[in-house]
Amino acid sequence: MMADTTAPVVIVGGGPVGIGLAIDLGLRGISVIVVERHLAPQPIPKGQNLTQRTMEHFHFWGAEDALRAARTIPRDYGMGGMTAYGTLLGDYHHDWLQRELVRPFYFTDNERLPQYATEAVLRQRAAEIDKIELKFGWTCTALRQDDDGAEVDIIDRAGNSRTLRAEFVIGCDGSRSLVREQAGITQTRSDHDQLMVLLVFRSTGLHELLSRYPGKCFYNVLHPELDGYWKFFGRVDLDSTWFFHAPVPSETSRDNFDFKRLLHEAAGAEFDVELEHVGFWDLRFAVADDYRKGRVFIAGDAAHSHPPYGGYGINSGLEDAVNLSWKLAAHLQGWGGAALLNSYSAERQPVFASTARDFIEQSIFTDREFLRRHDPARDRAGFEAAWHERQSGARAEVNAFEPNYEGSPIVWGPPGAASSAIGNHAYAARPGHHLTPAMLSSGRNVFEALGRGLTLIALDAGNAAERFAQAAAALRIPLEIISDTAGDGRERYAARLILVRPDQFVAWVGDDVSDDADPMRLLQRAVGRTG
């Protein structure tokens, strides 16, 4: 194969997932080329809810302050959500997606801003990193691979064409991914046979109507006629810009439907509407059966697509990027073993399958059952009791969404465990789970002391840290050691030794080293050098 340009990694798709992956790789010293067909971010307000976990990525990328400065709604207003019955202005409503409930388990606060604003921050940060070459305005037209690498053909808007050669190609090119299709990666789909509309509009009247719900930025309307599907309003700013999703008849087009009436019915009142965008999408789920095929990986919407329910999409995609990045870097730098790259799909694919099944799709089924069983016109007391129970369920959902890799081949999870999006937030350090922050005796947070490679947290652990350091040096595995006492809140980790991966997930915990917990063997498995 002949190529015009070569690089260790080529990323096709420069949305938030592709650019985030490039930043993470670049900061790890890996040269990467990003191919993106759009010259500028597309001004459609999607992917707005960024979780605390996602904001940890922006912290490590050196982009957290810039992202928070770009938010379109003042921070003191709040970022809450609510669910209403019948209409937005009806008698029944409760808080929804209260992510602040799990704030103590993460290093950073969550954030909310339109995806195009997020992309602009990521593009600027990527442009500051020498290892990243950004090719905006170029489209990938073909993909080929062999045992030694892969290459893509690209073309710009003037018709100029080039071929890029890489050791690995990553498809971050959306739900209609050319990379996925040409690599031969199959999908499992679940189609709800429901057309949805996306409206972007301006209205000062709606802002005034919803002033009765201070601190809310997104609003979900349940209606008996929708059978579990939502009418969903979201703020883009605190002035007059909104977006709206709702189910519509299958034959709906831009020209044959009264969208203003749809908005008024959902709100329960009339208000001024200036439509700026009308788009349609099909309510379906698609999850790739594998996230790797040879020298090709996929991430983000190329690997999994779903309805924009609950704000899981962009957060899941960015977690793909962080999971894959350290593994690619470890392989390319020579300290990651053969099993490490395969662990990307082994960890991320079942987690998103669980996210789609147990959270996004389950929310539709739960709302459908509620609407079929309860009606205030038929049994007000029964309805109100069930509505009160929903509030507890909304809080429980936030705590239960705790993606983990307990079933991963490179962590020491419980016997027979499976990787899943279902878990629970806890202070204890658990293999396969995200590390909870803690303050060190130095006054720094442990997240400020974690290394780019593996990190060992040693709390009153005797000479165990020295043994790990010797093993890491012999294996040439980068290892940062954080030594401290087991007091002042750190005892909540419930372990004296905690081996942390570069993506801030725990690989192993213990209280001492022994024949069964030999540092050499523990480190080898954590980087995929042994089964």
Give your account of this protein's structure.
A hairpin with an 8-residue loop joins strand 12 (216-222) and strand 13. The radius of gyration is 24 Å and the shape is globular. The strands form 5 sheets. Strands 1, 2, 7, 8, 9, 10, 16 and 17 form an 8-stranded mixed sheet that branches. An 8-stranded mixed sheet has the order 5-4-12-13-14-11-15-18, sandwiched between helices. It has a 4-stranded mixed sheet with strand order 22-21-23-24, covered by helices on one side. It is α+β, with helices and mostly antiparallel strands and 531 residues long. The protein has helices at residues 16-27, 52-60, 64-69, 115-127, 178-183, 204-209, 259-267, 313-332, 338-373, 380-400, 464-475, 519-526; strands at residues 5-12, 32-36, 49-50, 80-85, 93-96, 111-112, 132-136, 138-146, 149-156, 161-171, 187-202, 216-222, 231-235, 241-248, 274-288, 292-293, 296-298, 304-305, 401-404, 420-422, 454-459, 479-484, 497-500, 506-510. It contains 12 helices and 24 strands.
Arithmetic mean pLDDT? 94
Oligomer: single chain
Portion of residues within helices: 25-40%
Strand content: 25-35%
Report, as a whole number of angstroms, the end-to-end distance. Answer: 34 Å
Features:
531 residues; alpha+beta; eight-stranded mixed sheet; 30% helix
